[in-house]
Amino acid sequence: MFAVIKKSQMIMIAIVLCVVVCSSIVLSSTTAKEIDTIPSLGITVVVDAGHGGVDPGGIGINTKVKESDLNLEIAFKLSAYLKNMGINVVMTRTNANGLYGLYSSDYKKRDMQKRKEMIEKHNPDIVVSVHMNRYILSSLRGAQAFYDKNNEQGKKLAESIQHYFHETLASSKSEISIGDYFMLKCSGVASVIAECGFLSNPEDEALLVTNEYQEKVAYAIFCGIVRYLSLEE
Ligand SMILES: [Zn+2]
Fold first, then answer.
1. Cys bridge to 218: 7, 39, 78, 96, which one at CB 3.0-4.6 A?
2. CA 132 to centroid of ligand 1, rounded, Å
3. Quick check: 218 and 78 in contact, CB under 8 A?
4. Could you tell me the distance, in angstroms and rounded to a whole number, from the CA of residue 128 to the centre of ligand 1?
5. Alpha carbon of 66 to ligand 1 centroid (Å)
């Protein structure tokens, strides 16, 4: 049955599911479970959980949760949704460690270089880096999709992801943001950094540490990716 369904039809089916679920916001019932029988769409997404190892990224203002741990949780959840649709997923890290190998003063540079090498090796269609934001003003909150100003596909992907952030997540604006980041520039691939909320904001932090909200964020990114792919068909 599935074997005769075209790639474009599969994507449309997924979009319909996205719209239904996102509009009803019954996300707790959509917890991702990997299914082995769905055929590959021939699309590869690199899911990059930011930071790791000695680099925790941001720290939660109240709980002191590490950004690196939350990034990994959401990266796993996003990967499961993508795999369920028949999209190949490459995760840059699958545990709490960084990618730099043995620690030395230039660990950050080696960590970023390794992520770049993984993108080059797997030649993906999309790269999504998962991060949490922080800011000196604790009132700032919401999820933001960043893209590089010279990457047109990245901009389209960011618009698509931000659409679902705005529709489904707490206090997320509708505008996308230009970012000057290594992960957005290290390849020509459609790349987005998903800053899923502010760890410097107590309300965002309280949501981001829960499994339910992590699922919601991952599902919003997933819907954004599917919508982007459908527009590119
Ligand atoms: Zn970060």
1. 78
2. 5
3. yes
4. 13
5. 10
Q: Which architecture characterizes domain 2-232 according to CATH? A: 3-Layer(aba) Sandwich (3.40)
Q: How far apart are CA 56 and CA 100, in angstroms?
A: 14
- What is the chain written as a DSSP string? -GGGS-HHHHHHHHHHHHHHHHHHT-GGGG-----TTSPP-S-EEEEEE--BTTB--SB-TTT--BHHHHHHHHHHHHHHHHHHTT-EEEES-SSS--SSSS--TTHHHHHHHHHHHHHHHH--SEEEEEEEE--SSTT--S-EEEE-TT-HHHHHHHHHHHHHHHHHSTT--S--EE---HHHHSSSSEEEEEEEEETTSHHHHHHHTSHHHHHHHHHHHHHHHHHHHHHH-
In this prediction the pTM is 0.87
Residue 33: the pLDDT is: 53
How crowded is residue 48: how many other Cβ atoms within 10 Å of its Cβ? 24
Asked whether 141 and 198 are in contact (CB, 8 A), the reply is: yes
Question: What's the CA-to-centroid distance between 68 and ligand 1, angstroms?
Answer: 7
Question: Which two structure tokens, joined as six digits, stand for 130?
Answer: 């998962």
What pLDDT was estimated at residue 38? Answer: 84
Distance 191 CA to ligand 1 centre (A): 15
Dist. CA 54 → ligand 1 center (Å) = 13
Q: Which ranges of the chain have pLDDT less than 70?
A: 1-36, 233
Domain boundary assignment for the chain:
2-232
pLDDT score, position 232? 80
